[in-house]
Amino acid sequence: PQRRWSGQNRIGTSVTRHLLSMIALVPLAGALLLAGVGRDRDRLLRAIAWATTAVVFAAAVRVAFGFEPRGPEWQFTERVDLLPSIGASYAVGVDGLGMLLILLTAFMTFIAVSASWGRDTTRLKAFYVAVLVLEAGMLGVYMALDLLLFGLCWALAATAMCLLIELTSGDVRPEPAGHGRRRTLIRLAGMAAAPALVILLGMVTLHLEGRALTGARTFDLRAFQQLSLPIPQQRWIFIVFFAGFGGTLFGVFRRWLTVAADGRAVAIPFLLAAVFLKMVTFGFLRLSLPLLP
What we know:
The protein is mainly alpha-helical and 293 residues long. Helix content is 71%, strand content 5%.
């Protein structure tokens, strides 16, 4: 018989069965490992960041080859109930769009880290930590099947992107001294977190409306795809999601334009921002359009 790759219910190693979790958690593990390395050990910092993104990219390629276009809609699925009282769970899986964006994100991050190998910066450690956290957040968004997990990964990616841009701006602009720089970082984190809170508001509203109609306590995306909300509620939640996704796009892109106005700004954050902006579009395609037609 012809041998076929299967992304769903394939008997294999535990690594294969939990491939999506590995893809999402390896960048966080790499960031934690970097946090324990001295700032003056540039070669080791670069090696850890490069090896981490290489492993993630290799795993993403395995997902792409294992994905069956004619198979189930959601493949490589994993689920662990975390808070059954409210329906929150760790649920991940990929469809065709998510698989492509996971592969693209892993590839672009690997290229960005590779291109930065010879970069001269005094904040190399913070730069690589931000890159890996950004990668983990974006990959989590593309595979999340639980809305709360989606929102958490979104906030993580948006905050990391803002901090990464701020680190880049420090390479081309004088750093504020003392408390001024701390206030700048807090402001950028707030700029990323505020839209995420708006998105969370929309998710909680969607959860409550679904619970009122069906009695089920869940944040599972697949359950909401089968739900038909009244038009007024759909409009309200759509506006909330639009404000959250649009606010993320406006805040991050506006800050990036401020930094990119200086011709000496490096190109790596631009590459990451290009992938990040696709995440904003993905938010509309994953939540707003299919759930709130």
